[in-house]
Amino acid sequence: MIFVEDNLVKVNGIVLPGLVKSIEVKESAQIDEQEVEGSASKPKQATGYEDAKINIELLIDDTPTQTKYQRLAVARALFRSPGQTVPQPIPIVCEAAAAHGIEKVLFKGISHKVENKKGQLPVSLEFWEYVPTTIKTTTSSKTKSSPDSSVSSTSSLSSDYTEYLNSSRGKSPANDDEDATAALSTVSNMPYE
Question: CATH assignment of 2-29+46-129?
Answer without folding.
Answer: 2.40.30
